[in-house]
Amino acid sequence: MNKKVIRLLILLVLAGAVLTGCATGVRAESTPGVTVTDKYVYLAYMNNLYQLDRMSGARISSFPEKASAGLAMYAAPITDNGFVYFGDLGNDFHKVSEANLNQIVWTFDLAKGWYQAKPAMDGHLVIVPCTDRNIYAIDKETGTEAWVYRGEYAFIAQPVVVEDRVIVSAQDHHVLVLDIASGEELYRVEMKGAVLAPPLYDPESGSVFVGSLGREMVSFDLANGEINWTYSTDDLSTIWATPILLDNQLIFTDKNGKIIALNPATGEDLWQNNAGGTVIAGVTLVGDQGFLVAREDGTMSYYSSESKGGDWTVTVPGNIYSKPIVDGDQIFVPVVKADAYIYTYNITGVPGWSFNPSN
Amino acid sequence: MWDTIIVQPFTNLLLLIMMLVKNFGIAIILFTIVIKLITYPLTARQLKSSMAMQDLQNDPVYKKRMAKYKDNREKAAEEQMKIYKEKGISPFGSCLPTVIQLPIILGLYQAIMKVMASTPLELVKLERIVYPFLDVNRILPIQNRFLWMDLGQPERVWIGTIGIPVLAILVLVTTFLQSKIMQPPTQGNDQGAAMTNSMMMMMPFMMGWMAYQFSAGLALYFLVSNIATVAQYAAMGRVDWSRILPWVKPKEQPKPTVVLEEDEEEGEEVAPEPVKLVKPSARASAKRQRPKMKK
């Protein structure tokens, strides 16, 4: 074979390798999925699920033992009785031992799509939303499918389990309510836009509160699906996160950073503030005293229920797209485009540890 | 810059088509056809150049003139360039359009990946690049189901636990057929023929492998693009179906687009030999200018 042909073949192989490399890498971009327990912080990001020491942020273990460039995981896991349940972008959902993340108890591999959202658990079932347009109920002991709900679009929000019902946010402009025993759809509530965040359930009133990209906040009765009220104004932007209930106020943010408090019973406007920038992560409850608003640009402010203004502000060195987690006196902030995957603070805003796997 | 000029317009065009047809698979097919129509002048130019160069290769006068300088490659290349200039042939005319289409393929890949947003973060980013006249709330959610495919995932038809990559196989086969029926007639065992044959064998596997690995949306683009290219060439009368369909009569050689006139100076009898088209490189020229050591 002459030199030109060899050169051409090498070029083709290189081009193929480069393009294939692009294709086999992580195919989705997302934010770190974080779950906090008494002892550990679980962080699913890029090619690993990390088990970190909650107090120091030191890495204790990670899954898999050998990371693969083609396998990613972003969904926050759930833990139960010494086991960790999580899905990946390789279409597998695993149950592993908390004592050794690489000790796989079972793997559910019937899905044909990625696991992007945190699952929910109730009794013996793990309820797992999947981007293959299905919601799977998996028996937590055996890893077998108990039922499957077949939808029309990818499910990317954590389901909420309330007694015998599963409330699911759907991208097809609906909130679905399923029977937890059979997966049968009991009813659906129509929204004006895609619903990307889990709804909030208030056990006292029996109401569900949910926002959508259709620039609305809706309250409906879980018992029968009847709409209690809809809040929608001309200057309201899209809603990307779950609201909170604090001091009998329903508080949420829109994408433009507007902080809105409504009367949860009537939907009446109580007060408004502005975070001063784009907010995707919404508001996070801090005990029963206040809430956090994390802006996309990393500015995170604490608002006490009394002052309703920014009592303290820190700048997290990264972009925030998912809700910070407040547990005890610690705040855990998952970030992207930063030196670390997660930053921690105490509830007065004093920085704690951060985690970067390469350090 | 890249995003603003290529990816964003592609993404919005794709979304606009999707809004009209309400199906992402059909949107990709229509989008591919639109892109093919937009790049038609490039394809036509590419074909014209390659046809002219091919005709030139087969021209007896050209062969004679090249044979005259068979021992002096530099001179042959000089003569070749002179003929190209005379006949208005750009030696890069056949490869430049292909090079120009590469960013389009890359941009399309990125556009499809952006539209296939499957995480909240990707949806935030998609919302940002959607032009104001497209209401993102009407666009979302994106229906990525088309026939049996999930366009955001690599395509497989599952028979039990075995996933058969039907789309990748179709891409491989259509790429091969495309190369086969569009392959210009080559001469004997010269370098050009060897390169063409190597390309013809390698390309289908490369494209098939990419279709196997990438999301079905992009593999669908490859497939439609292959079919559209064959259709385009067929419409221009440059497809020889007899290469793949044995019952079809071989196509008659079309009238050459370039004919060299024999001038007196070159009327001497020289046995014509196939001469490949060579572009003089500085390195080759320097090498040839070096004095040879006598043995």
Set out the fold topology.
The complex is a heterodimer of chains A (359) and B (295).
Chain A: H1 3-24, E1 33-36, E2 40-45, E3 48-53, E4 59-63, E5 78-80, E6 83-87, E7 93-97, E8 104-108, E9 120-122, E10 125-129, E11 134-139, E12 145-150, E13 160-162, E14 165-170, E15 174-179, E16 185-190, E17 200-202, E18 207-212, E19 216-221, E20 227-231, E21 244-246, E22 249-253, E23 258-262, E24 269-274, E25 283-286, E26 290-294, E27 299-304, E28 310-315, E29 325-327, E30 330-334, E31 342-346, E32 351-355
Chain B: H1 2-21, H2 24-38, H3 40-58, H4 60-68, H5 73-87, H6 96-115, H7 120-129, H8 136-139, E1 145-146, E2 149-150, E3 157-159, E4 162-164, H9 166-182, H10 191-213, H11 216-235, H12 282-289
Antiparallel strand pairs in B: 1-2, 3-4
Describe this structure in words.
The complex is a heterodimer of chains A (359) and B (295). By secondary structure, chain A is mainly β. Chain A is 6% helix and 44% strand. Chain A has 1 helix and 32 strands. In chain A, the strands form 8 sheets. Chain A has a 4-stranded antiparallel β-sheet with strand order 1-2-3-4, with no helix packed on it. Chain A has a 4-stranded antiparallel β-sheet with strand order 5-6-7-8, with no helix packed on it. Chain A has a 4-stranded antiparallel β-sheet with strand order 9-10-11-12, with no helix packed on it. With 295 residues, chain B is mainly alpha-helical. Chain B folds into 2 domains: 1-143; 145-245, no CATH class. Chain B is 61% helix and 3% strand. Chain B has helices at 2-21, 24-38, 40-58, 60-68, 73-87, 96-115, 120-129, 136-139, 166-182, 191-213, 216-235, 282-289; strands at residues 145-146, 149-150, 157-159, 162-164. In chain B, the strands form 2 sheets. In chain B, strands 1-2 form a two-stranded antiparallel sheet. Chain B has a two-stranded antiparallel ribbon with strand order 3-4. In chain B, a hairpin with a 2-residue loop joins strand 1 and strand 2. In chain B, helix 1 (2-21) crosses helix 2. Chain B starts with a helix and ends in a 6-residue tail after the last helix. Residues 264-272 and 291-295 of chain B have low confidence and may be disordered. Chain A binds chain B through residues 1-2, 4-5, 8-9, 12, 15-16, 19-20, 23-24, 27-31, 74, 112-114, 116, 131-133, 152-154, 156, 171-173, 192-194, 196-197, 213-215, 238, 240, 280, 321-322, 336, and chain B through 113, 118-125, 127, 136-137, 140-145, 150, 152-153, 158, 191, 194-195, 198-199, 202-203, 206, 209-210, 213-215.
